[in-house]
Design brief:
Helices cover 38% and strands 12% of the residues. It contains 12 helices and 12 strands.
Length: 306
């Protein structure tokens, strides 16, 4: 997946070019994919916000330390939970290219997409619930879905957070640590305080490397620079152990999975390619929610992709 930060030595344009060459197939594959919510598991609190009542408390009650990892065949046999991957949530600019717009969901469209999910009876789940379900078959809420947001963009705090809060939804934010607190030419990024607030409010923070370097090319000191140091920084910010990882560009290789396990990660998220037959927990599928998709298209893509 892409990243809009101006990373040295990359510029935004160079990044898009890199994506076009390396992940065009993944992008195309991912792309080929009213009233308040009234499901019985939801309600409204005293402020009128839609809430997921008991669903979030169930997530908090899961003791994953007692879960034994199931064999790959068992995990692969379970029905996949829909997982959406978002990046920027802002209105398009004249300078945004065709490829870039795939990764930029306009604000009203995002709100309409979330309303569609709520009206359709979807309940957000978090990694503990997914981990328990994949390994033990633990029950999930009706119509479970996981929302994930990559790259630390500021709009994930200023736009996404209040939108999800109104629906009682929680999400996973995969943080790229090089960008924390930066103000870029094209986009600003979340601060340490904002990341901690998201965590304290019941969302999950996951690792997304230091500067989005292709996981398939890691060697030598890359494991320290891209995994160890970012993990330590995020754990210092949140006060919580990092157990989830998202591959930059969605690209992974089997050779690198033992390095993730060695560092205490229990699940890793790619994009829409086939899961690994030996390590499905480290190749969990997501689909990119394209900026070109209407809520109806998103709904159809969820049904067709999972």
């Amino acid at each position: 997946m892409r990243d809009f930060i101006v990373l040295y030595p990359y510029t935004l344009t160079m990044k898009y070019s890199f994506l076009t060459l390396i992940t065009a197939g993944a992008i195309l594959l991912a792309s080929c994919q009213s009233k308040s919510q009234t499901d019985s598991a939801t309600g409204k609190d005293s402020t009128g916000k839609t809430t997921q009542t008991s669903e979030n408390s169930k997530a908090a009650a899961i003791d994953v330390s007692k879960i034994k990892v199931a064999d790959a065949k068992t995990i692969l046999a379970r029905k996949q939970v829909p997982i959406l991957c978002y990046h920027q949530v802002r209105n398009w600019k004249p300078t945004d290219g065709k490829v870039g717009k795939d990764y930029i969901v306009e604000i009203q469209n995002f709100k309409d997409q979330m309303k569609m999910l709520a009206d359709s009876g979807y309940h957000t789940i978090l990694p503990d619930q997914l981990y328990a379900y994949l390994n033990t078959g633990a029950p999930l809420p009706s119509k479970p879905i996981m929302l994930t947001f990559d790259d630390t963009d500021m709009d994930q705090f200023t736009v996404v957070r209040p939108t999800l809060e109104k629906l009682g939804y929680k999400a996973v934010y995969f943080i790229m640590t090089v960008s924390i607190g930066r103000k870029g030419k094209f986009v600003d990024y979340m601060t340490k305080e904002q990341i901690k607030q998201l965590s304290d409010e019941g969302n999950v923070i996951g690792s997304h490397t230091y500067d989005h370097k292709n996981f398939k090319k890691y060697a030598g000191k890359d494991w320290e620079e891209q995994l160890d140091k970012p993990t330590k920084k995020l754990e210092e910010i949140t006060g919580k152990k990092m157990t989830e990882f998202a591959y930059p560009f969605g690209l992974w290789n089997a050779e690198g999975i033992p390095e993730l396990k060695k560092r205490g990660f229990r699940m890793a998220f790619q994009l829409s390619t086939k899961r690994d037959e030996k390590d499905p927990l480290f190749t969990i599928r997501r689909i990119i929610a394209s900026g070109y998709w209407s809520p109806k298209t998103l709904s159809n893509s969820i049904k067709n992709s999972f």
